[in-house]
Design goal:
alpha+beta, 15 helices, five-stranded antiparallel beta sheet
Amino acid sequence: LQFLYFIGGGVMMKLLGAVMLAAMLPVLVCGSQFHYIPGMELKDYGEGDIVEVNVNALHSHEALVSLDFYSLKFCAPSKEVIKSFEDEREEKLGQVIWGERIEPSLYRLKMKQDQKCVKVPCTSEQQTLSSTDLRRFEKSINNRYRGNFVIDNLPVVSKAGGSMLGTGNSEECYDTAPRGWPLGVPGNCANGETLIHNHLEFKVSINEHIPGRWIIVAVNVVPKSIDHHDESSCTPDFKVDDPHQPVTTGKPGDTKKVIWTYSVTWIVNNEIGWGDRWDAYLSLAFSNSNARVHWVSIINSVLVILCLSAVVAMILLRTLHMDFNRYNNPDSLDASEQQEEMGWKLVHGDVFRNPPWPGMFSICIGTGVQLLGMLGITVSFALLGFLSPANRGGLITAAILLFVLMSIVNGIVTGTILAMFNERRWKVVFGSGLAYPGVLFVMWLLMELYILSSRQGANTAPVLAVLSIMGLWFGVSLPLV
């Protein structure tokens, strides 16, 4: 603000600074007290209230393509219910690009009421899996796809720390990715038989923030494969931890009836509050063990880079020192050496020479400044807490909007670089708004078309999202350039 006032040199700048400070003060106070993103209201429940369970897309650490949850034959609500849910809940552009697709489910939890075994209310037709359905389950399980539930805006996680999936072919298989829950046990971990997890044991941690009102602070799930011989076996006296016959995908050509069930256990945990319930998801211990930061390798790489840079700097300084000594003592040189330019003087004219393609050079510099500006502002807002993971898709949406708004910086920098080369070509400035976004858009669109044509059930971006990106590009970004 001091810098703006110095440039403006007027009362308006001082007034603007006071208004900005007054506007940011409540946000900073609220952020320091609650450590939560503004606009995410606290939601509590009374005993017996229905807690809805929503589903998200199926993801895998081994496959790059996310699948729609109901691309596999799970128990699903009617199409009218899903359509009404999607109309009421508008997904952000960042969610669509990231591959998230939240939809309703038939799972219902009752606050603070434990349930030993509850059958998912689906039709007999949904419980019957054909040979094609079983093969799809088997393929997805062998590709390590994971189901994702969302309860009270919290993602459901399986047992962190790596629980054992099974042992087969002299190989022990562990679940090292806690986000979501594995759809089953791959064939190489179960002696050649692929198991389907048809029973989910929910363990929900709650906090009584006021008497009689509870908030959800953590959700864990333990998947199990239980072959219910009939629907009457799922009773309130059902014991989940007892040994049960698992559900397998069977042999090619088989059909099977699968009964989907779940159980619920409520755990009181008053140590975790509403404002810090996301801390466990953001810690390094929670992340995938394969994606943890290896600090020793990073420090080793930094030290190697510093040593190599020091060696190169010493060589350059030694060469420059020898050249300076030679030119500062012209009496020690003969006539031929005085006329001949040596060392760094051979390139002194190349510093101010125009590049072969000044237009492309200007576009690259302008786009780089645009990306740096977008990255800097996005990281700053993320550090201030405005881009909390509770706001799904907020980070990618903010990055896209900031990239669009920083197009004006791209145009200014590109024009300035062109003016340095005595170039006045508006087509180059116009091209700076088309080059980098055009390459990214074409690559993304071709990838979406390939996935749509080759992978059945793949979670691709809808047409409306493509039109929205094109609208931001041609309607906002390009005019700003």
